[in-house]
Structure formats: structure tokens, C-alpha cells
């Protein structure tokens, strides 16, 4: 029998074991499921509901709680069984992907370690048939070639020799490919994986994790892990496998809801949504900075979003207003500005807080001046948030006093009379329920009238009280506006521009973080203390100020920060440090890792794109052959449209599943889209509100294509007019590096200087 047959026999045996396990579990699962259904059906039968006496209420409460706990526990175990089944079903088709034979130096015993997406024991629960890829011993597979090798366990390092390192492609229980590999994990397998068509959903890479990626995945020392990785080097992939790794490593301590990922746009969220479930793990919370902002500001204020800011900076005329705005954008991103805000917040302890009148039925009941007076008569040594708490209590007591006065007023009586039958009944019943123990007084019409007026007044004061609790009597807009009358590092023009903007009622995007930061200093910080691991992807787009803000929001989180400074596309990151800069981290608190190998694109595309950026020569392409990028230069609109359509047909014939026409801005995208639609080309336009992306041809502005990849990319207009400034270079690089197999650059007019800098040996010219 040859080696392959022997291996196939083993696969068959493991598949049988899996089938057996599935059967066993299904039987058990059936029981649990029925139990859950049964419990739900009889939930109310098994609780005693009696609320006549306080003791009975207690008993009812306890009985309800017990029943709910029982149901919860059964539901959890049902879910556990269900998850197990899902993983086993996945393993039945492909039980493992790797094997290492390892001889421990101490015992001289050799183990054959088979590695798959999850561990699998034999039926006696004695031997591992498959090891989870995250188990300590599995790191041998990712880190070593045959020869001396070692791995770390919680008990210490185990040394030995690796005799065999083998990879398998197993599909539907059949070995389709099998290779013994050297240092890096098989080029064959990677070739196969990377040569495939792009997917509208990212896949897990556990079978082919590279050594330097494995380092990121398993890193477990300093609180900050900062990864600078070139485009397509697997940063996002590594981050997601790292989540799965941490969930496994700390499975008794950490759950998915204690982790969170900040991603660049909502479409990216749907793009990566499958990776963790594919690995048998739950997804973690994902948000974008934009979503966080929306959540915080809600309808309180109008504000600009990051994309609109970028759109303005890319499309507006470069005049004085523009330059002033740019100054603001850049300065408000810095830690110096954060210090300005800190100083200003300190000064507010003595004076300067602005308040709003509290009104009731159109009349002022506590004026802003009264609130201000009250606030500033409180002990100045008490912090602002604590003083505000006192103000809340005082305001609430004022409201209560007012409530009492109002109850006997005429308008209340009128309202009672005007009450609809249903409303009346509702209030009546509510009152009755509350006063059951005292039933005889209920006949008393006077009492009823009293209770009704109380309820009516309460109806009006309830929202006021809620607003007081939420500190909405603070006039945050005015407070923030006054910051620009204090001393800051901004020029007078930039400060005035901000105030003017605020007077129109809208917050610039660059003001959102400082605004929320100041608000937190005044109201007391919002913190997410349950988040233990925070992941920030596309970190180059965050400013030092935003980072300081995030650190305050997540004080107990270890952070994994990943990005590529060559893809920094926001104006605040120009000539400024960003989240990848070492000077933002305290000494010894952060580890910096670099990824230089790029996997996404063919060798030809990488050879081209690496010349677009300074230092690009250090980028190492993964050797996957393809065709050279194509440049199609045209002189007129007609020619441009004609060649666009011709290119689309040509790429379409190659059966690519995803083709992206990438534009610099939303404005350009809209134009391209209109042209294509008028020519009956089936195409979708992606904008900032698009949440998923689909197969076929799409038109998309670069900043929304961040982090995503396509089979073929067609740059809609790579002309010099479109791409000439420093920021354009990053946009251009980001756009070109989205392509996996083919890249075409169309230009209307002279090609961009970034292309002209490159020797024509690296692209075809048409
Ligand atoms: N070890 C690997 N095995 C298989 N595929 C990989 C590996 N590493 C990366 N890839 C693939 O390379 C592509 C790029 O990976 P990913 O999107 O994680 O890179 P990135 O560094 O986040 O890219 P960018 O910064 O350009 O958005 C993906 O298709 C991913 O599946």
C-alpha cells in the first residue's frame, strides 16, 4: 500500500468516527431540544403566580427566576450541542489539513499530529485524532520546517525534532492533494487558494497561515500589538484568526462579547462576517467609528461624516476657505489640540459651562442662569461630573415641587375631562392595580381625581426628568463653540470657520471626536469596561486624538492595531503620526510587527504597485503569475467611455466573478455609473450606505473599497488630473492593490504622474 492510500484509509477512519459522533450527539441533541420546547410550553404551568401579599410576590418572583434559569441553561446546552454538530459536519468533509511528526527530545516518542479546524478525540476519549489548529503543539506546523523544532505550552517549552510536515487538500472526505513541505507552508496549497476567484466573503486561512502571521495570531505579551503590513499581506485575516485563537486559548475566561472590532466601513463588516463562524466561533461585535459617532450624537446635532469630509477635500476648489479647512482638519487631529481641550475643560471648573432653560408647557421653570448659578456655587473642588450629579438632584426636586403645584391647576382638570375612554381606563386600571390592598377607598371619587391629576402631570414631566438625567440641560454646542474663543493652536481664520459652521448647526467631521471627548470630560467618561480585546483595522486612518479618545473609552482592553501607512487616505494623516506611529505608545507597552509579503495580487500586479510608494521595494510578492497591468489612455470622453465598455467586455469574458470599477470619489462614481446604465451594462453603484457587496460589476469610490478585494479592478480615470497630490498617491495605491488577478487603468488625458514614474517594463500600454 502506498503512502497516499494509507493516508486515505486514515481519513476514512476519522470520517467514520465523525459520523458516529454526529449520531451520538444528534440523539442527545434531540432530547435537549425537546426539553427546551417542553419547558417553553409549560413555562407558566410550573410557576406559581400570586401577587396578593408581599410574601406571595417574593415567591412568585423566585419561582419565575428558577424557571427562567432552568430554561436558559437548557437553551445554552442546546446551542452548545448545535455548534458542535456544525463543526463536526464541516470536519466530515475536510477533517484536517496538516500533519507534523514530532519526536520529543526528552521521551524520544514520536507523535503524529494531525491538524484541523477543531480537536477531535476518538470515541473512548483517549487519543487525539485531530488537534485544533490553535493548540500549542499545532504551532509547530506554522513555525518550522522539518528539523529541530520546539513549541511553547503553559508548562514550558517542549523541544524535539520534526520529521515530517505534510499538507492535505481533503474535500468530501477524499484526499485531493498531499504534499510534504519545507519552510513555508506549501506554495502549492497557497497557489491553489490564492488562484481562486475572489469571494464576496472573506475565508479563513488556517490551513496556510504563514510564520509571520502566526506570530500576530498568537502574540500574548504586551498590551498593544501594532502591525504595519503592506497591502494584501493578510492583516485582516491575521486579526480574525487571532480572535479565534484568543477565544480558544482563554475559552474559560473570555467570550466573544468581550471583544470588539473597529472596521473601516459597513460593507467590510459583511465581507468578513463568515470567517469566525467558519472556524466554529461566534462573531464579535463590529463597528465603525462612524457608527459609534452616530450612536453617541443621535439627533442631538447635525454632523458631517468621514466620507463627506473626504469628498469635500478631494473635490472642492483649492482656495482660501479650503486651506483654512485643511488647517483645521490637520490640527484637530493632533495631541496638541487634545491638550487645548484639556485646558479648556479645566477652566470650565471655574466658569464657562453653558446651560439650557428647563421648560414645562412652554414656560421656563428653571432658567439657564439659575442652573449656572447653582452649579458654580457648589464646591469647586468637586469634579465637574460630580457637581452635575448634584445639579441633577436639585433639578429633580424642583420638578417634583412643581408637579405638586401643577396638579390642582385648571389645565389638568381640562385634560382629565378630555381623556379618551381608553386612556381613562388605562390610567384607572393602573391606579387600581397599584391600590389593590386599599380597595374600599376606591369608591372615593376625590381620591380618583387626585390620582388622575397626578398621572396627567407625570405624563408631562416624565420626558423632562429623563432629559435631566441625561444631562441634556447642558448646552454642549455652545460649550464646544466657546472652546474656539479660548486659546488654541488654531489660526484665527480656522477658529472662526469652526464657529461659523457650528452656528449653522453642523459639526465638521474633524470636530466630532474633540466634541465627544470634551463631552466625556464634562459629563464623566463613557467607558466600555467589559471589552478585553479591541481590534482596530485600517488603523492608519485614525488620528492621534482619536486614538487617545479610544484609549479612554476602552481602558481595560488589550489592543491589536493593524494598518498600512501607505493606505492612509484621510487628510488628517498627511504629514502626521497615526496609530501605527511608535511615538503614540509608551515604552515597553507595545510590540511592533511588520508584514512585507503580499498575497492578494499576482506577481505582476505587485511588481507594479510596489513602485507607487516610497520604500515599496521591500514588498515581497507571493509568486503567482498573471498578466501585466494594462494602461489604456484616451483623449476624449467618447473614447474613454468606449474603452471602458470594451475593457468590461474583455474582463467579462474571463468569467471573473467580481469586477470593480474604482473611482476616486463618489461624484466620479455616480458619473461612471450613469454612463454604464445608459449603455445597458448591468452594474451596481456602491455608496456609503451599502451594507453588502455582491458578485458582478460594481462601481465604487476608493475609500469604500478599503480592505476588500476583487478579481479584476478597473481604475475609472487614472489621469494626472485625478491623481497628482500626496493624498492621491495613497488613494491610487489603495485602489490598485484591491486587484487579485487583473488590473486595468483607464485615463482620460495624460496618465497620472505616479504611473509615469514607473518603467513601461511593468505594464502594457494600449
Ligand atoms: N496565509 C494565507 N493563506 C491564504 N490566503 C492568505 C494568507 N494570507 C493572506 N491571504 C489572502 O490574501 C488576501 C489579502 O488578505 P487581507 O485582506 O487579510 O490583507 P490585508 O493586509 O488586510 O490587506 P489590505 O491592507 O490591502 O486591505 C486575502 O484574500 C487573504 O485570504
From TrEMBL:
PROSITE patterns: UVRD_HELICASE_ATP_BIND. The keyword Phosphoprotein does not apply. ATP binds at residues 229-236. Residues 1-35 form a coiled coil. Residues 208-602 form the UvrD-like helicase ATP-binding domain. SUPFAM superfamilies: P-loop containing nucleoside triphosphate hydrolases (SSF52540). The keyword Hydrolase applies. This is RNA polymerase recycling motor HelD.
